[in-house]
Amino acid sequence: MPELKTVGLFFITAVAEILGCYLPYLWLKEGKTIWLLVPAAFFLALFAWLLSLHPTAAGRVYAAYGGVYIFVAIVWLWLVDGIRPTSWDVVGTLVAICGMAIIMFAPRAG
Predict the structure, then answer these.
(1) At 6, is the pLDDT very low, low, confident or very high (cuts 50, 70, 90)?
(2) How far apart are CA 68 and CA 104, in angstroms?
(3) Does residue 64 or residue 44 have the better pLDDT?
(4) pLDDT tens readout for residues 69-110
(5) Alpha-carbon gap, residue 24 to 100, rounded angstroms
(6) In the chain, what are the domain boundaries?
(7) Which of 49, 83, 96, 100 pairs with 62 at a CA distance of 20 to 30 A?
């Protein structure tokens, strides 16, 4: 069960990071209101706080989190941007998720 908790926390963290970056993108590239920077700042702060909740070394958390971020970004590409992922997107995502699992869940001494 700790594995599901870890992956779930990574998933929520990735959504917070993507929102923290996507909202300024809307302002900069799509001409939306500058007020989007307020929730963007909140989501980026939430992202940093969520990463701090993992009990292992920060570098390991950041490295493993990247795999889940890739998965969530590809889902975002499909659901929000309306672009269906290619088979290469899917393969790359699977490789990234496998990397995350190895980094986070491999047996360690001590």
Answers:
(1) confident
(2) 11
(3) 44
(4) 999 999 999 999 999 999 999 999 999 999 999 998 888 886
(5) 28
(6) 2-105
(7) 83
Q: In angstroms, how far is CA 89 from the centroid of its own chain?
A: 16
Amino acid at 50: L
Residue 86: strand, helix, or coil: coil
Q: Are 13 and 50 in contact (CB under 8 A)?
A: yes
Q: Quote the pLDDT of residue 92.
A: 97
In angstroms, the Cα distances linking 60 to 45, 54, 85 are 20, 10, 28
Tell me which residue of 10, 81, 8 sits closest to 47, measured CA to CA. 10
Cα-based distances in Å from 75 to 5, 10, 103, 104, 110 = 20, 14, 22, 22, 37
